[in-house]
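= Tokenised fold =
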Amino acid sequence: ILPWSDQGIRALVLREGNAQLVETPRSGVMENRREITARLRLASDGHFRCDGEIHAWGGMAESFREELWMLNEAGRKEYLSSWFALRAPGTRLERYHFEGLDPPSDPLVISFSLESEETIPAVGDLFFLDPSAIQLLLPEFFYDETSESPFEVVFPWHETQKIEILLPPDFQIDTFPAPVEVITPFAEFRQGITGGAQIIRFTQSFSMKQIVIPEDLQASLREFAVAFERARRVLFTLKRHAEKGVASF
């Protein structure tokens, strides 16, 4: 697969002594993907720890490398801390490790540990947990209400995240959000939740299928963004029972 900056451009190709002007092929959605897997452990006092890995291929891996290659170790930690601050607000990056960064190889793997700086919101013995501890973010043009020209992305991509949430023994699920699915010609978003007494499995996926969004679809972009934000605001309501055992890190 060519680097994303060399895809979809006119290039001169020599074949058997003949020169031909061709357009370089573009990669598909699944060739540019990022997968996040994580395990979140909730303590009885409402703090949590999240350990996981990011796997990235194609353009998604290149985007990370372009930011990280020229940085020293302190700069890399600062970049990752900022990256997680956008997607996991209220957490602190405690540990990280790279594989496939230098020399470059796919998948690029980033292992990480996050710890919450504050407890999750609570009213009495009811706690409110955002299951998307690491949030998916839409490109900013989904929210643009003023543009009169087509939007274009550099490559199509796919993101998934699977978060396993372990509850302490004195907690139980009080309310359980329904699954969500938003499908359009240019993008898809899915969110699913399963689990039992002390464990919740939360999955999200987003696909950007088109690289050019014409003017006549821009209203649909904003409708997609509204549905996406509504889905992201789902919360589990958890109830704590004082008579059961407690858990900490």
